[in-house]
Amino acid sequence: MPLRNRPFPAPKVPEVFLIFWVIKLLTTGIGETASDFLGTWSIPAAAVIGVGGFFASLWWQTRAATYHPMRYWITVLFVAVFGTMIADGPHVALGTPYYVDSTIYLILLSGLLYWWKRTEGTLDIHSITTSRRERFYWGTVLMTFGLGTALGDTTAQNLHMGYGWSVVLFAVLIVVPLVAWRLGVSSVICFWASYSLTRPLGASIADGLAVGRHASPPGLGWTTGLVTLVGLVIFAALVGYVAATHTDIEGSHAAHGIQSDDELPTMDAELD
Fold first, then answer.
1. Which residues pair with 130 in a beta bridge?
2. Tens-digit pLDDT profile for residues 235-265
3. What is the DSSP string of 254-265?
């Protein structure tokens, strides 16, 4: 029996502007260190919090008919934790190199985007106005987290770049979609490229802060627990801010006449 395709009164995603990318980057770092912390603290707890939290938050998000920042970003956060687990799982269980995992997730992501475009005719996140499009959206988000996690580990470990140089690499790469967008490349393509690259950038930053100085590759030794806690405090403050000010509601910036050079692709154009 096919799943019901419910219509929504408005897109169930936040407006894409600077604070969107800041919160997204935070979730990537928190997802990385939280997953590592839970895995070393208690495997059963990791399963309950990581896997259970993922399905519970996704159910909470998809059953609603409207966008709400706390519900949306909590779901992204648990997708980040779960995405780390599914990216690290094959490497830990099967011993596959991270570049192999990266290739697999890239193929899966590309296939899902093709299916989404073929089915709905657009990959524009502003078009998330039905439950079917939302399912495509969250599946794509999960694949970007899996791909980004494996990419970050590929550069830091398989390519022996360490966390510092990985941060530099992905910080440079994430500017490329912005420049391409300014030059007229499809905003949808640039959005998903930027979205995917936030994951290895945020994860490399978090790992660099958390991993011990004598680890391989070495980090600053703040521990995964401390980095996760600090990240969650900042995350809660920013999500609380957008929830209170409603500055992430679709069209809010245009309605107030706000224009900013700091904005990244806002998905006004569709992918042809």
1. 7
2. 999 999 999 999 888 765 544 444 444 444 4
3. HHTT---TT---
